[in-house]
Fold this protein.
Amino acid sequence: MTKLATPAAAPSPAPPSRPAVESVIATLTQEFGNLVVTAAATREQHGNTASWLESEPPDAVVFPQCTADVQKIVLTCAAAGVPIVPFGTGTSLEGQVNAPLGGICVDTRDMNKVLAVHAEDLDVVVEPGVTRKQLNEYLRDQGLFFPLDPGADAALGGMAATRCSGTNAVRYGTMKDVTLALKVVLANGEVLTTARRAKKSAAGYDLTRLFVGSEGTLGIITELTLKLHGIPEAIAGGVCPFPSVEAACNAVISTIQIGIPVARIELLDALQVKAVNAYSRLSLPEVPLLFVEFHGSEASVAEQSAHFGEIAREFGGGPFDWATRAEDRTRLWQARHDAYWAAGALRRGTKSVASDVCVPISRLAECVVATQEDIAASNLVAPIVGHVGDGNFHLGLLVDMNDHDEVVRAKALLERLVERALAMDGTCTGEHGVGQGKMKYLEAELGAPALAAMAAVKAALDPAGIMNPGKIIACR
Amino acid sequence: MTKLATPAAAPSPAPPSRPAVESVIATLTQEFGNLVVTAAATREQHGNTASWLESEPPDAVVFPQCTADVQKIVLTCAAAGVPIVPFGTGTSLEGQVNAPLGGICVDTRDMNKVLAVHAEDLDVVVEPGVTRKQLNEYLRDQGLFFPLDPGADAALGGMAATRCSGTNAVRYGTMKDVTLALKVVLANGEVLTTARRAKKSAAGYDLTRLFVGSEGTLGIITELTLKLHGIPEAIAGGVCPFPSVEAACNAVISTIQIGIPVARIELLDALQVKAVNAYSRLSLPEVPLLFVEFHGSEASVAEQSAHFGEIAREFGGGPFDWATRAEDRTRLWQARHDAYWAAGALRRGTKSVASDVCVPISRLAECVVATQEDIAASNLVAPIVGHVGDGNFHLGLLVDMNDHDEVVRAKALLERLVERALAMDGTCTGEHGVGQGKMKYLEAELGAPALAAMAAVKAALDPAGIMNPGKIIACR
């Protein structure tokens, strides 16, 4: 296994002077009144709260109501060289919302309108603060849905910014696939539109996908046009037990290879199942499980379910009990989504640290098994859940932060997790993004020319380095 | 309908001096011997031959054998400020391979090896000169296929560079969706790898999709990792007649909305059917037709076909005769792919000019009908074919180039085609790309900030403007 080179310290722009920050806050307050908040509690809620990265709150939080407000904020900050950190729901997991140099957090909470539903075109135009659940509530009586589901009820702007995916991505793709167009406020205050509403285009560089996954480092997303799907005529799903993680992974590989259009296929290892049983009062068998869901016509979901059941049997799994009753499915998927909280409850008083990698699916079983062995050898507690149809899995490390030795072992485990994924031609993050937490792995993953290209693009679109500095790549 | 603003003349870098070009050719000849060709016939084959844009041949053509060769060529040209034009099979339709400033054409014909098939991961690593048919021949006995099918047997490097799509895109996506990773030689001679082989990643800016569709203006693709699919268990398809183009389009809209996972759904207007009958010796009814194909299990293609037949009936179409016999389908699709040649044969001695636009599918019927009316009012001959499941359609204008008035009317028609598509929130090109032919429409489509962002990215990655200058956006 290749050792990662020690990453060079990331040079960052200098923090702004205190008078510059004060002056920006005064100007914004004049413009936006009590929509500018400097109270400590609010600032702390807008630092990183979802990981063990140190929280670095902004100097102030401002709540724009529209794109023009965002432009004013950006122009004010740009004039003073004060950093800007965009904020959706703060559920990102790698410190994307931290403000290492201070500056102004732009919370899009109030930009939460669904602007247009084009039912015939299966698309919707939304403001960035609309959350995925809010959107699906809005769409339900039109028979439409937005498929991406990262667990948290994240804001769609943040989901685009972090190239989110989640449980349905194996069937419906990630945010890069479902985003048709974006409106973005650039570092110079201009509003850029990335694309028209046509389903495909070959008209120039793919600006849409340049901004998807850029984590606010190239601009602030103020409007999204997203693809929708019709609510499937039928949904079937269930839980399938396996004798080993390896058997479960191999069943997944076969399912994908044969081309069953599975909508979700999620692995929970035995420890995660134990946690889910305790937390969600279920009595699932405490062995590796696949949670599986199929979308289609009544006939097709029955056919898919039967076919999957046969595959599971080939690998010693099963029985695969599937149902089309919504209440059964809802209970299961709620339990799956509560996996993070359930894991936390396994070991009270610990910090729950989520990290993800993604590998080519042929290496998935090997990668998960080696990781489980590594967890055991490290004397750590870390249930595994995974969007295994994409080769993507998560550790939910439970760390006693008062035990220095355990913290050291946990950090070393996460380093080896990434090294293992890279050695298998995988990526250091399938869906959580880079933020601050994974910057040090990017060069090992992609090489110096790719990083230099990213830095050149960043410098081209944000020459002063004010947009979410200290994330993804070092600013110059 | 919004009139397009007259586009500003695109500033271009100055052409290189003749001695600079001579010196580059001498250096390359020393390195590559008779793989450097300056014969007029070869140069002319490497200018634009597929449209009515004037052909602008390069000063020399060189045939690299590997990535290191491409690096040497780029470094040699960069040192002398001589332009580089990448070349696949020369089937692009908007002048992408023209050399308006002269320079060196890099023909990847000999880089045609399939480097690795990862059957378990459903991906393949290829050199850029591999064509799609060559790849599918190679894959067939492993039960795998590469779905994208633009008609021409294009090289995969060129297909990625132009963000190609074609008949299967409605089901399998475009090159942006099926490209996992690229190796690219940059303007500074460095080799950049855009991504690992994991099926998804959130590790930094999406360099893969930055290069897909960049038409050689940011670098030369020297290796591609592409997603594959298992050859479907069953394929069904057939032809369905409709009383009007509008009825056909409305049936398409319903099919997509209901979520039938149609693999191909292609419109031929009555004139195109007439051309196909004559050219391919078929006896299809000379009315608007949809060519439709379904992929899946035996049961699912039967279900899909029956469901589509019902939809067609609702709109006065049908009967929809579908078959699963490969020979019937092959004959039909060959005829569909020969549509370009068939159209040309409608009016001997004319130039066949293909242009495409793409609109939100709800506007498709309106856009196609208005375009047909415009063709008639302009006294022109232009059959229409379309990848209508994506809202994308093509005119095959047949122009007597000796008739000045007709040429003027034809050019005006194509301008109005783009204006019409833009007025419907569509794009000036769904799949042919920008090249030289559609540069003038980009600002009207995307706005000045988007063009400025593209220009900034171009300048960041190719500061001297040597990579395929005069395409997509003006170099600085």
In short: Confidence is low (pLDDT under 50) at residues 1-11 of chain A. The longest strand of chain A covers residues 220-227.
